[in-house]
Write a structure and sequence with these properties.
Structural class: mainly alpha
Distance between the termini: 60 Å
Largest sheet: 2 strands, antiparallel
Low-confidence stretches: none
Shape: globular
Order of helices and strands: HHHHHHHHHEEHHHHHHHHHHHH
Strand content: under 5%
Radius of gyration: 22 Å
Helix content: over 70%
Oligomer: single chain
C-alpha cells in the first residue's frame, strides 16, 4: 500500500499531469488521422524524451499508446478506413452500422467497449501488484543473466511464430535487426563488430535513430509519394452514452474479449491482432445471430474494441517483469527506461515498486480522460480524417529530422535515419512487416548484453539452461517450436487432401 500511495503521489506532479493530458489527447488525434498511428507518433516523440524526466516521458508515451486505439475507431466506423492497423477489424461491423444511419451507436459501442477493456486489463495488473507485490520482489533472486537471456530468446521465438503465414520472412527481418544490434565496439573485450573503422559506428546505431527512420520517415515517404484521396463525408449522429447499456447487455462477450486481450497482451510477440481474432471468432460462435457479423453486429464491434484496448496494459507486464518487449511500441518505451538508467526486469519490483504503480495508475487516468474527451469532442476530432496525406507526410518528415538532429546535434544521425527510412519505405511497398526489425534490434541487444555478462558462468551449451528458470523457459521454447512444426505438417497434409 505504501508503494501505491507513493506511486500515486508521483503522478500528482504538475509536469506529469500535463504529460498525461498531452499524451492522451494527442493520441486520440493521432489515432483519428489515417496514416500516422501510435508507432509513428511515438517514434517522433522519442527524441524529445531524452530531455524529459523519466516518468514524464513514459506517461507521455503511454498516453499516446493507450488512447490512439480509441481515436483509430473513429475513421474505421465513419469512413471504413482504420485510423490504426489494429482498428481494421472494427470496420467490419462499425462501418456497416454507419451505413444504416447508426454512426452514433457504433461510436458509443466502440468507446464503451474500449473503456471496459482498458480498465479491466489495468485493474487486473494493479490487483496482481497488490496481491503478489511482496513475492514479486523476490523475483530478482531467481532471475540471473542466463534466465533473462532465455526469456529474450523465448520472446524472439514467439514474435516469429506470431507471423503465421510469413514466419520465414519475419525470421529474416528479425535477423536483420539482430545484425544491426551487433554493430559497435565491445568494450569489455576491445572487439569491433562490423564497424569497418567508421568511428560513428563504434557506439553502435542509436536505437531512436533506427526507430524514427524505420517507422516515421518511411511512412512520411509513403504519404508524400502517394495520391491524396478525398475522404467521403461522414456525420456523427445519435447519442454517445448508450453504448454502456448495450455492453451491459452483452456481458459474456465483453468479459471474454477483455480476458483474451489481457492474456494475449502478456504473451510477447502476440498482441492485438491475435486477441481480436480469438475474441471475434468466440463472439460469433456464441452469438444467436452469427450471420450479422461483418454486416453491423454490435457483438462483433464490442469483441474487437474490447480486446484490442485490453492489450496495452497487459503488454507492459512482460516488459516490466522480464525486460522483454512484446511488440514495437513497448520496445520503443524500453528506450526511455534505458535512458533513465532503469533496467526493466525482476529487479524493478524490488527497487522501483512505486514506479510500477505510477505507470498502471497513469494508464487508468488516461482511459478516463480519453473517454471524457471523446464524449465531449468527437465531432471535432472526426474532422482530422480530412487532412491531406501529402501535408501529413511533409509534417512527419520535418518533425522526424528535427527530433533526430536534436538528440546529439549530429548530421550523421539524420543521414542514417534517412537510410533506414528508405529501407522501411521499401518494406512497406513490399508489404513486409517492420516490427521484427525493431524487436530484433531490441531483443538482440538484450541477448548480446546478457550473453556477455553471463559468459563467466557459461562453459558449455548446457550451462545456458542448467538453472530452474532458464531450463523451464527452454522447455517452453521447444514446445512452441514443436507446435509450429506440428501445425505446419498438419496444414500441409490437409492441403494435399483438399
Amino acid at each position: 500500500m505504501d508503494a501505491f500511495l507513493l506511486g500515486l503521489s508521483n503522478l500528482m506532479v504538475p509536469s506529469v499531469m500535463v504529460a498525461i493530458v498531452i499524451g492522451s489527447i494527442g493520441g486520440l488525434i493521432i489515432g483519428a488521422v489515417p496514416g500516422i498511428g501510435p508507432a509513428i507518433a511515438i517514434a517522433i516523440l522519442l527524441p524529445a524524451t531524452v530531455f524529459l524526466d523519466d516518468l514524464v516521458s513514459l506517461v507521455l508515451l503511454l498516453g499516446v499508446y493507450g488512447s490512439s486505439m480509441y481515436g483509430g475507431a473513429i475513421p474505421a466506423i465513419l469512413i471504413n478506413t482504420p485510423g490504426t492497423p489494429v482498428n481494421a477489424l472494427t470496420t467490419y461491423d462499425g462501418y456497416a452500422l454507419t451505413r444504416r444511419g447508426e454512426a452514433g451507436r457504433a461510436l458509443s459501442l466502440a468507446y464503451s467497449a474500449s473503456f471496459f477493456g482498458g480498465c479491466f486489463s489495468i485493474t487486473m495488473a494493479l490487483l496482481a501488484l497488490f496481491a503478489f507485490g511482496p513475492y514479486l520482489r523476490d523475483l530478482g533472486a531467481l532471475f540471473g543473466q542466463r534466465d533473462i537471456l532465455m526469456a529474450a530468446v523465448l520472446g524472439s521465438v514467439l514474435l516469429i511464430a506470431a507471423h503465421k503465414q510469413t514466419m520465414g520472412l519475419a525470421a529474416m527481418l528479425y535477423g536483420f535487426g539482430f545484425l544491426i544490434a551487433m554493430i559497435g565496439r565491445q568494450s569489455s573485450r576491445d572487439i569491433d563488430r562490423f564497424t569497418f573503422g567508421f568511428e560513428y559506428l563504434f557506439s553502435g546505431f542509436n536505437l531512436i535513430v533506427v526507430i524514427v527512420g524505420i517507422f516515421a520517415l518511411s511512412q512520411a515517404l509513403n504519404l508524400m509519394i502517394g495520391k491524396d484521396a478525398a475522404a467521403p463525408e461522414a456525420r456523427v449522429t445519435g447519442g454517445l452514452l448508450s453504448g454502456f447499456k448495450e455492453i451491459a447487455g452483452n456481458k459474456v462477450v465483453t468479459l471474454i474479449s477483455a480476458c483474451y486481450g489481457t492474456v494475449m497482451g502478456i504473451i510477447p510477440g502476440v498482441g492485438e491482432f491475435v486477441a481480436q481474432f480469438f475474441s471475434y471468432s468466440t463472439a460469433r460462435a456464441l452469438s444467436k445471430e452469427p450471420a450479422r457479423f461483418g454486416h453491423g453486429s454490435p457483438e462483433g464491434l464490442i469483441a474487437s474494441e474490447t480486446s484490442n484496448n485490453a492489450v496495452p496494459a497487459a503488454a507492459m507486464i512482460p516488459l516490466l517483469a522480464l525486460g522483454v518487449p512484446g511488440e514495437a511500441l513497448t520496445a520503443m518505451m524500453m528506450v526511455v527506461f534505458f535512458d533513465a538508467g532503469i533496467k526493466p526486469g525482476p529487479d524493478v519490483f524490488e527497487n522501483n515498486p512505486d514506479f510500477l504503480f505510477s505507470l498502471f495508475t497513469a494508464l487508468l487516468i488516461i482511459n478516463v480522460l480519453v473517454l471524457i474527451t471523446l464524449l465531449a469532442f468527437t465531432k471535432y476530432i472526426a474532422k482530422m480524417i480530412y487532412i491531406p496525406n501529402r501535408f501529413l507526410g511533409a509534417f512527419i518528415m520535418i518533425l522526424a529530422f528535427v527530433g533526430v538532429y536534436s538528440i546529439r546535434n549530429s548530421l550523421p544521425d539524420c543521414v542514417f535515419a534517412m537510410i533506414f527510412g528508405y529501407i522501411g519505405y521499401i518494406l512497406r511497398r513490399l508489404d513486409w512487416p517492420l516490427v521484427p526489425i525493431v524487436l530484433g534490434l531490441v531483443l538482440g541487444s538484450i541477448i548480446l548484453e546478457r550473453l556477455t555478462a553471463g559468459s563467466g558462468q557459461i562453459k558449455t551449451a548446457i550451462d545456458l539452461i542448467n538453472r530452474p528458470v532458464s531450463g523451464t523457459l527452454f522447455v517452453v521454447i521447444l514446445m512452441v517450436i514443436g507446435f509450429i512444426i506440428w501445425t505446419s505438417i498438419t496444414n500441409r497434409r490437409s492441403g494435399y487432401q483438399n
